[in-house]
Automatic annotation (TrEMBL):
<keyword id="KW-0812">Transmembrane</keyword>
<dbReference type="InterPro" id="IPR002033">
    <property type="entry name" value="TatC"/>
</dbReference>
<feature type="transmembrane region" description="Helical">
    <location>
        <begin position="21"/>
        <end position="40"/>
    </location>
</feature>
<dbReference type="GO" id="GO:0009977">
    <property type="term" value="F:proton motive force dependent protein transmembrane transporter activity"/>
</dbReference>
<keyword id="KW-0472">Membrane</keyword>
<feature type="transmembrane region" description="Helical">
    <location>
        <begin position="201"/>
        <end position="218"/>
    </location>
</feature>
<dbReference type="Pfam" id="PF00902">
    <property type="entry name" value="TatC"/>
</dbReference>
<feature type="transmembrane region" description="Helical">
    <location>
        <begin position="224"/>
        <end position="245"/>
    </location>
</feature>
<feature type="transmembrane region" description="Helical">
    <location>
        <begin position="83"/>
        <end position="104"/>
    </location>
</feature>
<feature type="transmembrane region" description="Helical">
    <location>
        <begin position="116"/>
        <end position="138"/>
    </location>
</feature>
<feature type="transmembrane region" description="Helical">
    <location>
        <begin position="165"/>
        <end position="189"/>
    </location>
</feature>
<protein>
    <submittedName>
        <fullName>Unannotated protein</fullName>
    </submittedName>
</protein>
<dbReference type="GO" id="GO:0033281">
    <property type="term" value="C:TAT protein transport complex"/>
</dbReference>
<dbReference type="GO" id="GO:0065002">
    <property type="term" value="P:intracellular protein transmembrane transport"/>
</dbReference>
<keyword id="KW-1133">Transmembrane helix</keyword>
<dbReference type="GO" id="GO:0043953">
    <property type="term" value="P:protein transport by the Tat complex"/>
</dbReference>
Length: 268
C-alpha cells in the first residue's frame, strides 16, 4: 500500500492507488452480485410484496392490482442480471465507500476528516430511514396509481418499469432525508450560521412540501405529507443543532478562528 502521510505523493502513485482501490471495489461488487444472483427469487418476492403478491389478491370487483410481466426472450435473463448488479452495489456499499474514504481522507485536514466521518456515520442511517419509509408507503402509492385504471380495463405492467419506479421512490426518500445534514455540514465548516438556516423557515417548509409534491410519484396528499413532515422536522432539528454549535463556538474564540471555509491564496 502506498504511504501518503508525511509527504506529497507522485501523480503516478495516485493513479496506481486509485486503480488498486477501484479493483477492490469491483471485486466486492462482483461478490455481492453473485449473492444477488443466488437469492434472485427471494429478492423478487420482497420487491413484489407491495404489489399484491403479483396480483394474487386481484378480485373481479377491484382494479387496484395489475399484473406484472417480463417481455421478450431475453427479458427474464436481463432482469436477473439487473437485480444481481443492483444487489452487488448495495451489498458491497461498505467496501467501496471505505475504499473511497481511504483514498480521499489523506488529502483532508484533521478537522475536515472528523466532519466527513461524522457526516458519513449520520447520513447512512438517515438514508436507510428514508428508504424504509419509502418501502412502507409503496403499497399505498401502487394502490393509488393503479386506482386510475378505467373500469373494464386490465393493467399489464412490465416488471423492469415497476423496479425503476421502486428504486426512484427509495432514492428520492433516502436523499431527501439526508438534505438537512448538508445544512449542518455547511454550518460546521462556517458557510452558514444557525440563524441563517432557520430565518427562511416558512420558505423551507413550503419547499419541503413542494419537493414532495414534485418528486413523490403519487398525486394524493397522504403520501406527500408522510415525506414532508419528517423533512420539516429534520430541517428544524438541523437549524437548532447549528444554533447550539454557533453558541459553543462563540464562547471559544479558538474554535471560531478555526472556521475557515475558503483557504487563503498562499495556502492553496
Amino acid at each position: 500500500m502506498f504511504k501518503r502521510r508525511g509527504g506529497n505523493m507522485p501523480l503516478l502513485d495516485h493513479i496506481r492507488e486509485f486503480r488498486d482501490r477501484l479493483i477492490k471495489s469491483l471485486f466486492a461488487v462482483t461478490a455481492g452480485a453473485v449473492v444477488g444472483w443466488i437469492f434472485y427469487q427471494p429478492i423478487i418476492r420482497l420487491l413484489t410484496l407491495p404489489f399484491c403478491d403479483l396480483g394474487s389478491e386481484t378480485s373481479p370487483k377491484s382494479n387496484n392490482c395489475g399484473d406484472l410481466y417480463v417481455s421478450g426472450i431475453l427479458g427474464p435473463f436481463n432482469l436477473q442480471v439487473k437485480i444481481a448488479l443492483l444487489s452487488g452495489v448495495i451489498l458491497s456499499a461498505p467496501v467501496w465507500l471505505y475504499q473511497m474514504w481511504a483514498f480521499i481522507t489523506p488529502a483532508l485536514h484533521k478537522k475536515e476528516r472528523r466532519i466527513a466521518l461524522i457526516f458519513v456515520c449520520v447520513a447512512s442511517p438517515l438514508f436507510a430511514t428514508g428508504a424504509f419509509l419509502a418501502y412502507l408507503i409503496l403499497p399505498h402509492a401502487v394502490n393509488v396509481l393503479l386506482g386510475f385504471t378505467p373500469n373494464n380495463l386490465g393493467n399489464l405492467i412490465r416488471f423492469d418499469e415497476y423496479l425503476d419506479f421502486v428504486l426512484r421512490l427509495i432514492l428520492v426518500f433516502g436523499i431527501a432525508f439526508d438534505l438537512p445534514l448538508f445544512l449542518v455540514a455547511l454550518n460546521l465548516i462556517g458557510v452558514l450560521s444557525g440563524k441563517a438556516i432557520l430565518k427562511p423557515w416558512r420558505l423551507a417548509v413550503f419547499l419541503c412540501f413542494l419537493f414532495t409534491a414534485a418528486f413523490t410519484p403519487t398525486p394524493d396528499p397522504v403520501t406527500m405529507t408522510l415525506l414532508a413532515i419528517p423533512l420539516c422536522f429534520l430541517y428544524f432539528a438541523s437549524g437548532i443543532f447549528s444554533l447550539l454549535i454557533d453558541k459553543k463556538r462563540s464562547r471559544d474564540p479558538n474554535k471560531q478562528a478555526e472556521v475557515s471555509p475558503i483557504d487563503k491564496p498562499e495556502r492553496i
